């Protein structure tokens, strides 16, 4: 199993580039064409959330992505370096929780995580003292070639 790592400056313009790279790697990993739009949208939401958190709390720190494929799964992890207590007031451990309280304002984070939960096959959200990680995965039709 190979892993592709990507980091980018916390600027909204870089979210598009991240989506394009993730889509290319997902295709190469065997994700069905019918799922690629869902991958692109979910990753875009996760990256946008991380960029917004960084812009408010640590604009000089990069947003990080890890892309991997193994066991007929394609997995993307979007990580920020904003501690969960500072950036969000704590994230829920289950994205389908009925009540999101994030503190990012305007319901943006709430809506973004709800979208991610609806698009990804499997989602795990973890708020740690070192930052927030959103791990998403989708089925792949063939073993990864990344």
Commentary on this structure:
The chain has 146 residues and is of the alpha+beta class. The protein has a single domain (3-139), classed as 2-Layer Sandwich (Heat Shock Protein 90), CATH 3.30.565.10. It has four helices and five strands, in the order βααββααββ. The protein has helices at residues 13-28, 33-57, 84-87, 108-119, and strands at 3-8, 63-70, 73-79, 122-128, 131-139. A five-stranded antiparallel β-sheet has the order 1-2-3-5-4, covered by helices on one side. A hairpin with a 2-residue loop joins strand 2 (63-70) and strand 3 (73-79). Helix 1 (13-28) runs antiparallel to helix 2 (33-57) and helix 2 (33-57) packs antiparallel against helix 4 (108-119). It is globular, with a radius of gyration of 14 Å. The model is unreliable at 86-106 (pLDDT under 50).
